[in-house]
Amino acid sequence: MTRIIAGFAGSHRLQVPTSGTRPTSDRVREAIFSAIAARSSLTGARVLDLYAGSGALGLEAASRGASHVVLVEKNRAAARVAKRNADLVTRAAEHSVAADARPVIVVIPQAAQTFLDAGAEAMPQAFDMVFIDPPYEVDNQALGKNLEALMPLLAPEATVVIERSTRSGRPQVPSNLELVREKSYGDTTLFWLEPRDL
């Protein structure tokens, strides 16, 4: 079972695609959002969830105060599940959050690299938080290409969280991003990146 952990939609159960995705465990999501809470606030943040699957990471951010969440998922069945989950969180906001503080949640059924290559033309406002949880078959070279294309879409103080199988090793980090934290949780490793002052 996957659920929203905290915020206005806390304890709401999320649907999970039957195949083609690898949901982030509650334990790892708890670790991610505890670390975010210790570093900054999600209130008013613009969030991008690449390889979104069910949308659990982006929707958790919405529940905790993000103002705008974009879920990008190329698998059509998974994107439909993400849309249903987004609708659930939106309805929860309608019952518990003032109208001017409700998050805008958008699901984009598109490949991550295609979305990123569209760049600022597609998303004129920069993202404060980015979650990247690619399938195992996305290798470090492809992930490095994602990160290169992501750079123009990041706010100066943005945080990028990458979730990978521990066996995948470190991702290829472009020179304009800095790896600031790395922590493993069993078979999963989280990498925290920030824009580098050049």
Verbal overview:
This protein is of the alpha/beta class. The protein contains 5 helices and 9 strands; from the N terminus they run ββαβαβαβαβαβββ. The protein has helices spanning 26-39, 56-63, 76-96, 112-118, 140-150; strands spanning 2-3, 13-14, 46-50, 68-72, 104-108, 127-132, 154-165, 177-185, 188-195. It has a 7-stranded mixed beta sheet, with helices on one face. Strands 1-2 form a two-stranded antiparallel ribbon. It is globular. The protein starts with a strand and ends with a strand.
Search tags:
single chain; 198 residues; alpha/beta; seven-stranded mixed beta sheet; two-stranded antiparallel ribbon; 5 helices; 9 strands
Secondary-structure element series? EEHEHEHEHEHEEE
The total of helices stands at 5
What spatial form do the alpha-carbon principal axes imply?
globular
Cα distance spanning the termini: 43 Å
Strand element count: 9
Beta-strand percent range: 25-35%
Given helix and strand content, the structural type is alpha/beta
Element layout with pairings:
Elements: E1 2-3, E2 13-14, H1 26-39, E3 46-50, H2 56-63, E4 68-72, H3 76-96, E5 104-108, H4 112-118, E6 127-132, H5 140-150, E7 154-165, E8 177-185, E9 188-195
Summarize the structure.
This protein is an alpha/beta fold. The chain has 5 helices and 9 strands, in the order ββαβαβαβαβαβββ.
